[in-house]
Design goal:
Strand order of the largest sheet: 1-2
Number of helices: 1
Radius of gyration: 15 Å
Largest sheet: 2 strands, antiparallel
Number of strands: 4
Helix content: 10-25%
Strand content: 15-25%
Structural class: alpha+beta
Distance between the termini: 29 Å
Amino acid sequence: MDYVLYSTSKNQDELVKVQIDAKAPKIESVMVIYPSANWYEREAAEMFGIKFTNRKTKKLLLEEWNGDIYPLRKDYQWGTDYKKR
């Protein structure tokens, strides 16, 4: 997973690459440093199944999503129905 971090006060950007386990993807949240990462981490959690630790909010982007399937992962079977909550 890649994080592209940008500091407006210093006008610098930084690329951080992190390796995560494909079977149980888990990584620490960067919201403590960059609160604007909230939306992107929520999207990565719902679409790829990545678990972010130390997150303050657990709110979903797609409210009726069941969280058991992750459509942007390579192992996702297209045409699979999902259950609404």
